[in-house]
Design goal:
This protein is of the alpha/beta class. The chain contains 25 helices and 27 strands. The strands form 5 sheets. Strands 19-20-22-23-24-25-26-27 form an 8-stranded mixed beta barrel. Strand 15 and strand 16 form a beta hairpin. The longest helix has 21 residues.
Length: 688
Amino acid sequence: MTVSAPTPAARLPADRLPSASELAARAARYAALEWLARPVWVFDIDGQCVHWANTPALAVWNAATLAELCGRDMGHDMSESVARRLAQYQSDFVLRADASFNEQWTIYPGGVPVSLNVRFSGHRLPDGRTCMLCEAEPVGAVPPESLRSVEALLHTAVMITLYDQGGAALYRNPAARAAVLSPGERLQERVGNPAAFAALSRSLDQHGVGTLTLAVRTPQGDRWHELSARRCNDAITGQEAVLVSEADISAIKHTEERANFQSLHDVLTGLPNRAHFTQRFARAIDEARAQSLEAALLLIDLDHFKDVNDTLGHAAGDELLVALSQRLRHTRHGTEVLARWGGDEFLVLLTSPRIREDLDALHERISVALAAPLLVAGTQLRVTSSIGVALYPQDGESIEILLRNADLAMYAAKQRGRNTLAYFDGHMAETVRSRTELEKELRHALEREEFEVYFQPRVDVATNRIRAVEALVRWNHPRLGMVLPAEFIPACESMGLIGALGLWVLAQAARQQVAWAAQGWDLVVSVNLSPRQFAAPGLLHDITGVLREAGVNPARMELEITESMLLGEDQHVLSVLRELSALGLTIALDDFGTGYSNLAYLQRFPIHTLKIDKTFIQDTDANRSLADLIVSLSTLMKLTAVAEGVETQEQLDWVAGRGIAQYQGYLYARPMPVQALTDWLRKHPLPR
């Protein structure tokens, strides 16, 4: 091992230099060793200096006096590997008083290399500290490559150990010594796993070499090592031995583990991804088949998730997905496989001897877990989900077929009003085929002028006379006849057609307002604005162009928005609404009570009309307390309250009893095409 020579300035501080009397005491203590012809010295490992040396050692170290040698700071430019090796020696001397080691060292007194064979043994100083007695002999003429190979062996980070046939360590280089918990650790203990050790032994017996990649316990913690072994002979005894080299590959192993984890898990949520789920699916189905269990594939789709992305931004959407994925984790009872399939969709595979019963319980847990309020980007959200279920094996035996059928069932759950679970049945395939056809035809419906705007009256509760009309689009399909918005608006949104369709409806409604006003019916015409339209950068430009082209009075046009549109960045939303109001338009909040906002939140926005969702109007008296609160607060805020979906006289009586100003619904009139409503207006004069 190389020990660099200290520079002339590398001296111990004055307070650490031994006094003349101390040097004399040391000389007296070791007087017997002075008679030896070979170099002998005592090295203070803690102080990193020579404690004492005989005259031959002074010559080896090129020191004029004992005081000069003892004053050298040997730790000044000592390499890390030398310091680590000395610490190993000291530890072994403490554990075993009779421990000794023989190694070849190269020292550099005065910059001149001197190679020595040194025997090291433990020695206790008068103050109780353990130091090292060094007995040296010159190596003599040694080929340079031999010296260099010894140096490489001692300084390398590769762990080299020579074991005898029984697995006891005959020699360890410094790196190997630093990697064992005990100097007496045997090869069998190093490998640990009996089966792995047996395999290594067989390979050595058959081929003379063997390799293993294994986890080992070291003083630095658990590490991954690549171990290579080969049979050889001990250079001292000539007996058979095993030379083992170990390389620490923990960094590579951890990188592989991370890469493997990332390849099988969703980066955002940490849940298993498609590839992982597909693997787990095959194993779970095999186990279910072997145990005669039933299985179910659940496709969970978050309701109205797109509104969060459109209004609060994708960062908020990601935050919501992470929070909900954690909640879904906690709904499992140990047997379910949960994965993120993509976007806002999650998959669950459930196996059970009583599948329907366990599905009901799981659905209840999911509903409860998702329903608790969440604070995302400063906004409190309540989330529901639509779930489609396909059963194994009756609805399919492969993941592809089960997934397709679960998707059909999930779409059916959406159509049933969301926040529910639907099981797959054979009729759903026909439904999706029809939906696909519908989407194809939608792309050409605008250019073929197949859409038509209907209008539904909004009526004064006190006088029962028309105050306004709401524009509602219909699709006159050449083959299917009249198609209602619920069947094609979602498709328009997903296909990106809603912007063009919404602008077309606004233009038709504005032109009709002008036409009716010219005939003496100066009605307010209300038009729905979709979230995608509201978020479009050219919204104000497009609306201004439509109003100007139609020549309509903006004060007679009203834009209806949903609560979800108010969830975006306050300043941006406020700015857009103020600019719309500055054009002279009024703003109505549609379907209020079903979304995320609250009345106090609305005070900051220029809202003029509040349309109370029909679910409150059509509910029983016992469940209308929230509607009462909405009416009371809208009165305080001077908002015009409009009851939606009034279909019976009892509902109208309740609306009138609460002081709600206006209503619309089938009780008064269904939506009508232009000519039908024009005829209606002739029979129902407007209030003055």
